[in-house]
Amino acid sequence: MTPARAPRPGTRFGVWLARPLASFHLVVTIATLLTVLGLVMVLSASSVEAYADGGSAYSLFVQQAIYAALGAVLFYLALRIPLRRLRQLSFPLFALSVVGLVLVLIPGIGSRVNGARRWIDLGVFSIQPSEIVKVTLVVWGAHLLASRRSEHASLKDILVPLVPAGLLVCLLIVLQPNLSTTIAVGIVLAALLWFGGLPVRLFVTIAISGVIAAAVLALSAGYRSDRMRAFFNPGDDPQGANYQAMQAKFSLADGGIWGRGLGQSRAKWNYLPNSHNDFIFAIIGEELGFLGCALVLGLFALFVYTGLRIAVRSADPFLRLLTATATTWITGQALINIGYVVGLLPVTGLQLPLVSAGGSSLAITLLMFGIIANAARHEPEAVAALHAGQDGRFSRLLRLPKPEVYAPAKAEAARARSAARGKPGQRGGQPPARKPRSGGQRSTSGRQGTAEPRRRSAQSRGTSSARATRAWEPNYPVTHARERGRSR
C-alpha cells in the first residue's frame, strides 16, 4: 500500500502558502506595499504645509523618500547578516543604543524640538536613538531568553537582567520626554516576557503596574493631561484640546466609502495638524475612503498572520521569540495609532509604522522587517529548499547567502545526551553497578568471549547517544530536497 498523502489546499492561495518561501515573500510584499502607500500619502498630506514653509510641495516627501532608500539598504543588510553574528552583536548594539539615549539628553548633543530632546543632529541627517533601541531590545531580549531557555528556568533567569535594562531604557526615554516611545518599549518588554514563558499571574501583575505607571506619566505633564481630559470629555473645548481629534473624525466621515480622491483632502489645508505624521490615517480615510482604511488594516492583519506563522514554524527558539515580539510591537503600535485617530484611545503620538512621516521610524522599521524576512528564510522547509537550489528569482537577484541549518546549543545537546543515556531506576544515566565475580579468575577465552558483547554494547550506547543528539535538531530533508531539485 502506498502511504496516504497529505491533503492539498483547495485554493490557489493555499497552494501558494504551502511553498517553502511563502513567508519570506509575504514579509517583503507587506513591507513594500506599506512603504509605497506611506510615500504616496506623505506626499499628498504634506504638500500644503511643505509649500507654505519652504516654497516646495515636495520637500517633506523627498526627505521621506531618502529615509525609505536608507531603510531599503538596512532591509537588505538585515537579510544578509548571519543569525549567529546577529546574536553575537545583540548586546553591544543594545549597549550602544542605550549610550545614544544618554547622549541625546546632553545639551549641545541632543537637539531640542518642541521642548523635547529626542534627536542627535549629524549635519546631513538626524537620528532618533529611541527608535533604534526598540530593535536592539527585541534582538538582545530574544537572544537572552533563548540562551536561558530550560525546563526549570527560575523567575530570576527570565526577569534579570531583561527587566532592569528595559526599565532603564524607559526611564531615559521619559526624561526626553517621550511617552509614546516609552509605550512602544513597554510593548516590546511585555511581549518578551509573555513569549519568554513568564507565569500568567506575574505577567498580569507587571502589566497592571505598567498601565498604572503610564497613566501617572500621562497625567504628570500639562499637555499630556490635557489629552487625557479631552479623551474623557470629547465634546469639550472643540477649538483647543479636542480640536485635533475632532478634525480627524471629520476627515474620516468626509471620505465615506470611496473617498474624495487621491490628493483631494481638505483637512490637510491647515485644518488637521500633523496630518502627514500622527494623523495620516485620517487623510487615508478622507482621500481613499473606507476601502483605503480597510486596505491598511488588511495589510497589518496579514503581517500578524505572517509573523506568527514564522514564529510557529521556526525551529530556533531565538527566532520564535524575535519574530513574535517584533510582530507584537509593530502591530501594537499600529493599533494604538489607528485607535486614537478614530477616537477609541487617547492621543499618544505613536506613528503608523511605515506609513507616517518620520525618517528614523521608517528606516528602523524597515530594518526590523528585514530581520523578520531573514527569519522567514530560516524556516525548516525554506532551509531545505534553498540548500536544494530552489532559490527563486528574487533570492538570486539579491544574491542572498544560504541560511544556516539550525543546531541546538551545546548545553541543550549535552542535556539531551545525558537524558538519553539515563534509564528508569538509575540516577542521571549512571551505569549499573557490576555484579561481584563468582569463583576464580576467568580464562583468556572467557575474556575474549565477553569482549565482543562489550564492544557491541559500547557501539549501541554511542548510536543511541548520537540519535539523542540529532533528536534535538530539526529534521531538515536537505539531501532529499536536493535530489528532488536535481531531478526537476
Automatic annotation (TrEMBL):
Pathway note: Cell wall biogenesis; peptidoglycan biosynthesis
GO cellular component terms, A-Z: cell division site; plasma membrane
Main location, first listed in the record: membrane
Membrane topology label: Multi-pass membrane protein
GO molecular function, one term: peptidoglycan glycosyltransferase activity
Domain of life, per lineage: Bacteria
Coiled-coil boundaries: none
GO biological process: cell division; cell wall organization; peptidoglycan biosynthetic process; regulation of cell shape
Enzyme class: transferase
Membrane spanning residue stretches: 21-45, 57-79, 91-110, 122-146, 158-175, 181-197, 202-223, 279-306, 318-342, 354-376
Pfam families: FTSW_RODA_SPOVE (PF01098)
UniProt KW Zinc keyword: no
Keyword terms, alphabetized: Cell cycle, Cell division, Cell membrane, Cell shape, Cell wall biogenesis/degradation, Glycosyltransferase, Membrane, Peptidoglycan synthesis, Transferase, Transmembrane, Transmembrane helix
Catalytic activity: [GlcNAc-(1->4)-Mur2Ac(oyl-L-Ala-gamma-D-Glu-L-Lys-D-Ala-D-Ala)](n)-di-trans,octa-cis-undecaprenyl diphosphate + beta-D-GlcNAc-(1->4)-Mur2Ac(oyl-L-Ala-gamma-D-Glu-L-Lys-D-Ala-D-Ala)-di-trans,octa-cis-undecaprenyl diphosphate = [GlcNAc-(1->4)-Mur2Ac(oyl-L-Ala-gamma-D-Glu-L-Lys-D-Ala-D-Ala)](n+1)-di-trans,octa-cis-undecaprenyl diphosphate + di-trans,octa-cis-undecaprenyl diphosphate + H(+)
Region (Disordered), start-end ranges: 409-488
Location of the protein in the cell: Cell membrane
Enzyme Commission code(s) on record: 2.4.99.28
Bias (Low complexity): 409-423, 438-450
Family of this protein: Belongs to the SEDS family. FtsW subfamily.
Physiological role: Peptidoglycan polymerase that is essential for cell division.
Protein name as annotated: Probable peptidoglycan glycosyltransferase FtsW
